[in-house]
Amino acid sequence: MKLTSLLAAAAVVAVSHASPHPALDQQQALGSLQEAHRTIVGEKADQSLEDLLQHDPLLSFHRDLVSIESISGNEHDVGIFVADFLRAKNFTVVKQKVASVKKKKGDVPDNDDETPKTRYNIYAYPSSLQEQPSILVTSHIDTVPPFIPYSVHKPESATSRSESVDDHVIAGRGSVDAKGSVAAQVYAVLETLEANPDAKLGLLFVVGEEIGGDGMKTFSESEINFKSAYHTVIFGEPTEAKLVSGHKGMLGFEVLAHGKAAHSGYPWLGKSAVSAILPALSRVDQLGNLPVSQGGLPSSDKYGNTTLNIGTIRAGVATNVVPASARADVAVRLAAGTAEEAREIIRRAVKDATREVEADVEVDFSNHNEAYSPQDLDTDVDGFEVMPVNYGTDVPNLTVRDGVKRYLYGPGSIFVAHGDDEALTVRDMKEAVKGFKKLIDAALERD
């Protein structure tokens, strides 16, 4: 079946068309964006860098991506920008609607009307391609809050104008996670197609990775993925230009305590939910450091210990009231085993820790639907340093057939990805294009 026929049959998608809500003047020439955003080049930049940004297609594209705010749930504008950019590069572009983050997963609009809040995955392949792509190159276009404007400047250590332009720092929300990967992937694919016009490549840029992966899950459950023919998927995330051998699994849960309110002068008339939840949380906090034989969560040589983070605790209404309720939210990074095995260990630990408390204490997993085991990835391409990572990605959200190769690679460091100092260098971007091309070339050898 020709790819065009397959896409026409997919009810969840719509072929890209011009947006009635342009993204931040995204139709302007690249140079005019400097006036629109006023933060393109920092005070420490020099004219050579400004000229480079103006005339280097990779850096200009990256600049425009980062300049468009796309916090999870608000990805409409950046999606339209990417769709129009790829269409202008002779790609067939499919815009796949993804439900609003305030709606349930199945609540995709039934009509084709576009609104300023419509979220799209962007799927694209060369217009000349008559077969389904055999290699899928993918990353995400959403970011965490808050929006930080694009800027570029010399490194703080620069002492002379002889400093290489490649060392200049590009900053802004998403510059690393993951618009650096998006830009590098696009130009790696464009350069590959220039040398090999028949390369069977597909691009996928999804929304919602930072909030549970609803974009990738929507694509995974679509007709495009069901009928796909790719043997390789190349994921883009900040990996310091290293090839990732795998990442930890993920699990979340709440610990809830239900007591009885009373005047704090007569606490024996009530049941303190805080007093009840404390031993449970103390036990939970230790589970990653205890051996399985003592009721702890499993570890592995590859990923180390399972780690837990008690991220939030909420309880009580006033200091002079015995708290009737308490709750804590916990995130788990699994080093081994399955999510269901971890759930059972956690339930048992909380039960054992609260046998003698007066209030009722329970574990609730219902508000944390994202749960998966550690994800092992392929590293069989020479020329890369290899490492495991602790953070989560969209890798487990994409269902693939047995035997499909999965690679994880990209520019920049996860250590700055969600911070105020999110940034990478010009060199990082250029090297990432080379790295993605190397992975693509290795995959093409399997066609």
From TrEMBL:
Keywords: Carboxypeptidase, Hydrolase, Metal-binding, Protease, Signal, Zinc. Residues 1-18 form the signal peptide. One of its GO terms (molecular function) is metal ion binding. Pfam families: M20_dimer, Peptidase_M20. Residues 246-355 form the Peptidase M20 dimerisation domain. Its cofactor is Zn(2+). SUPFAM superfamilies: Bacterial exopeptidase dimerisation domain (SSF55031), Zn-dependent exopeptidases (SSF53187). The keyword Isomerase does not apply. InterPro entries: ArgE/DapE_CS, Bact_exopeptidase_dim_dom, Peptidase_M20, Peptidase_M20_dimer, Peptidase_M20A. The keyword rRNA processing does not apply. GO terms for biological process: proteolysis. Belongs to the peptidase M20A family. This is Carboxypeptidase.
